[in-house]
Amino acid sequence: MNNGSAGHEEEGGAWSGPAGAEAFAAVEAATDWLLGYPFVFEALSRRIGADDLLVDYGCGPGRVADRAARVLGARVVGVDTSAEMLALARSTAPAVAEFHLVRDGRVTGLPDGCADAVMCNHVLASLPTEEALLGVFAEVRRLLRPGAPFVVLSTDPACTEREYVSLRVGAPGASYRPGEEMPLRLLRTDGSWQEVRNHAWPVDRLPALLESARFRDVGQRRPTVEEARALAAPGLVERYPWTAERAAPPLVITSAFAA
């Protein structure tokens, strides 16, 4: 998701409706583009190739799905629960092959075992209960062929002590129970900050949940700024000091495989 001088703050809950879609599209996301998305693409690149089908579960406005299609050469399909997000993505993500709506927990128009890989970026924090997490994992498992990879990008809710370049996690020094509502502040491209209400899911809780949802070989990685030098866009590492990101990287990549 998400430097610069702080401007005015806007409060918001879910990214719902046309205004929510436009607000999400305006998130700056520098920390994610340094320590998140490039590492998701790297994990996927070891398992999929040109013309394989990659589903971006919770694609939002399609920016990450579009980059994945260009970087990986895969056929990328974006899915989301928001029709407004999908409408925005259709107009701004030309490299994405197609888009599907998630209705009642099921992706419309995609059959069982159709996907060679699924990625899921910052979606789990929008889910209020463990049951909801397991529901998403079950639907992802339905989409994946056996042995195919599932890669999840999450923000560690324990990282409340630091001011990251483009995000602030929770209240300073606070701790949150699993599923508890937690504020997240995201830097926008105009220099203002958008506050959204997320849910805290400890990253060390995810492996057991994935295994219970019939995934295997679960592993986790916390990318560092030094590792990002080889993967991030040219010049991004030099653009900011990344003081907090160096001290306590806030993003975790969780990878698993459909059993």
TrEMBL record:
SUPFAM superfamilies from the UniProt entry:
S-adenosyl-L-methionine-dependent methyltransferases
Q: Which GO molecular function annotation, any one, does this entry have?
A: S-adenosylmethionine-dependent methyltransferase activity
Tell me the classification of the organism that encodes this protein: Bacteria, Bacillati, Actinomycetota, Actinomycetes, Kitasatosporales
Protein name (record)? Class I SAM-dependent methyltransferase
Q: Which residues form the Methyltransferase type domain?
A: 55-151
Sorted keywords for this record are: Methyltransferase, Transferase
Concerning Gene3D superfamilies, the annotation shows: Vaccinia Virus protein VP39 (3.40.50.150)
What highest taxon heads this organism's lineage?
A: Bacteria
Provide a GO biological process annotation. methylation
Classification via InterPro entries: Methyltransf_11 (IPR013216), SAM-dependent_MTases_sf (IPR029063)
